[in-house]
Amino acid sequence: MASDCIFCKIAAGEIPAKKAYEDEHLFAFHDIDPKAPTHVLVIPRQHIASLAHASDKDAATLSQLLNAVPAIAAQLGLTNGFRTVINTGADGGQTVSHLHLHILGGRAMHWPPG
Ligand code: 5GP
Ligand code: ZN
Predict the structure, then answer these.
(1) 10-41 b/e (C-beta count within 10 Å ≥ 16 → b)
(2) Which residue lies with its CA nearest to atom 13 of ligand 1?
């Protein structure tokens, strides 16, 4: 756990969040500033600063992150589809330096993104 990381603190229960899912490896919670009717963030409990910081040793974590999405989306009722996003670094629009996967749904998404 990175002591100055808000997402590490959310996963540890030290900062409150509206939980959507959790298991041994992952924590998912509703975004505080939703960009769609449903907007959930899925994070590994392990602190990885961004996708650009992930390496071969994180392969299992990355697999768990993506593999959890179908069940979380189904639980959220996103039967008509959803958007998954991982913003990385400054140009990617990443604002929190703990790897997180956005699940956005409940409306039709636009393409290309801004
Ligand atoms: P990023 O821009 O890094 O891809 O996404 C970070 C997301 O985290 C943003 O959508 C922002 O609204 C959300 N966020 C930032 N701080 C908090 C918080 O304290 N609680 C929750 N639930 N979401 C947060
Ligand atoms: Zn962290």
Answers:
(1) bbeeeeebeebbeeebbbbbebeeeebebbbb
(2) 31
